[in-house]
Each structure stands twice: as C-alpha cells, then as structure tokens.
Amino acid sequence: MKHAMKLVPQGDREIVVTRTFDAPRELVFEAFTRPELVKRWMLGPEGWSMPVCTIELRPGGKSRYEWAHTNRKTSMGLTATFKEIVAPERIVHTEKFDEDWTGGETTITTIFTEKAGKTTMTMTIVYASAATRDMVMKSGMEQGMSTSYDRLDGLLEK
User: Fold this and answer.
1) Average of pLDDT values for 114-130?
2) Are 93 and 80 in contact (CB under 8 A)?
3) Rounded to an integer, what distance in angstroms lies between the CA atom of residue 110 and that of residue 98?
C-alpha cells in the first residue's frame, strides 16, 4: 500500500517530512544507510541516477551523493557529515550541496518509529534561513521526495 508523504513548514526555518512504509524499521533504516540500496531509490523524478553514493555511518563520518540526469547532462552533488547515529531509530546529519543553493549547511534529524510492522519516518530539516526554507518549499522538492519514497516502497516489498 502506498502512503502519502506529508511536508509541512514549522517555525521559521524548518520543514517536517513524514512518511510511513509497510516494513519494519530495521529494513527502512538499512534502506537509508546502505549505499547499494540508497542508489536504487533516492533519485527524485524520473530520469535521474546516482552514480556516486558513499556512506560512512558513524558520528563524524561523511557521505557523498552525486546525481546525474540522463537527458540533460545535468548533475548535482552534496556532502553530508553524521553527528549522531542510533540504529535503527535516529540519524542526525548536516549536509551542503556543491552548488550551495541552500545558503549554508542544513541540519537533518531523521527518526524511525515502528508500530505493528509499519515504520513512520519523521525528518526535520533545519535550513540556514527562513528565506531558504521558503524557497525550498516552492522548489518542487516535495514531488521529488515523494517519488523517491514511492520507489522505496517497491524496494521494501521485495
């Protein structure tokens, strides 16, 4: 069953994203933290791939994500640093895009809660400024994230 993603502004600089998956949280946590799985679902709209995905899952560890678009010779990359890992329930990390369109580091806290075999992911994203948060709300990020999570549903069903 496909669940709807909710993306809601909170305070001046935050967005809270919630999405439920029909899978135990250990599996959802793995899908968020194992490069070979992340590369299969965290792609946004159709036409994107992730040729580079490295994840050093420990406090102080780094992640690197690079996306490429098949038709447009467009690419995008970001580097993340893990601040806190409590497997399989919590990840806190900062991230910054190569082309720093978000105006500085973004802090993301992701919490995975399981109930009756279903996992709810709650992601709180804190941007550097209110203006950046407002820009992101209008950027189409919601559609890209929603498409990625729908793709993750298919991966978790297997």
Assistant:
1) 97
2) yes
3) 22
> Please, what are the domains in the chain?
6-157 (3.30.530.20)
First and final CA of the chain: distance in angstroms?
13
pLDDT of residue 102: 87
To which residue do tokens 């946590």 refer?
29
Helix, strand, coil shares of the chain, percent, nearest 5, are 25, 45, 30
Amino acid at 73: K
Residue 129 backbone zone (phi > 0: left; psi -120 to 50: alpha; other: beta): beta
Predicted structure pTM score? 0.93
Question: Which tokens belong to 41?
Answer: 């679902």
Say if residues 109 and 92 touch (Cβ distance below 8 Å): yes
